[in-house]
Fold this sequence. Notes:
By secondary structure, the protein is α+β, with helices and mostly antiparallel strands. The protein folds into 2 domains: 3-163, dinb family like domain (Four Helix Bundle (Hemerythrin (Met), subunit A), Up-down Bundle); 179-264, SCP2 sterol-binding domain (Nonspecific Lipid-transfer Protein, Chain A). Helix content is 47%, strand content 12%. The strands form 2 sheets. Strands 5-4-3-6-7 form a 5-stranded mixed sheet. A hairpin with an 8-residue loop joins strand 4 (201-206) and strand 5 (215-217). Helix 2 crosses helix 3. It starts with a helix and ends with a helix.
Amino acid sequence: MSQQAVEALTKIHLQVEKVIGDIQEEDWKRPSLCQGWRVQEVFAHMSSNMKEAVNPAPPPEDPLPPMKAEEAMEALVSPRRDWSAEQLLGEYAQYFEGWIGGMSALQEEPTASTMIPLADLGTYPMHMLANAFAFDHYCHLYIDILAPEGPLAIDVDSPTDDMIRPGIEWMITGMPQMQVEELAAAVTQPLELELTGPGGGTWTLQPAAEDGVITISPRANLGAVATVTSAAHDFVSWGTKRSNWRPSCVIDGDESYASSILDVLNII
Length: 268
């Protein structure tokens, strides 16, 4: 199960609290590393997700057409663009405890293993929602908001393995489903991904089987024609196309082949 992801969310929240304590009025308007969103919109995204998980808005009378995940996120953020800092932080504080409790409840069977579709992101057991949020919160805080990649130079604790690893597990699990056709076309031979430092591990991307979906094995030495090595923290940035992979990755083996996959990869 993903109880470690629930614990990661709690630890990341403590760092969010430090940012809330030090953030200045002008900081809310600064552009974050998340394209199109200021720091204000990033907080609005986090708080609105909490609110919808705890107290979802009733569905509209006229059903809306299906939306992609990023469109659904923007739909929640848009009405909050002009909220004050007090309103955003009030929503965040109001729903955090209930949200954490809900994520913990998803770790209990039979709910934990119940499969749920997540728009265009794929289908996952419900316990993995905690991993998805751990990835989301870590990425938005440590990549989008905080320096050196983000705009705010606020002192927080350095990320630890137990803060990063649940989000990395979400990225690895989701990768085959988020870009089914693109990765099936790109991954024609095994490629090893070695992530170092906190949150790290080794996985091998393998060509798609008859179902047309690549597989990822949590180990090395599976006949890979190349190995890509990167810090796990950096993977959160370049694996989501927030930054270029080239300054962060070392390739051992068939560099052209590995590069063709890294150029395609775009985890949501």
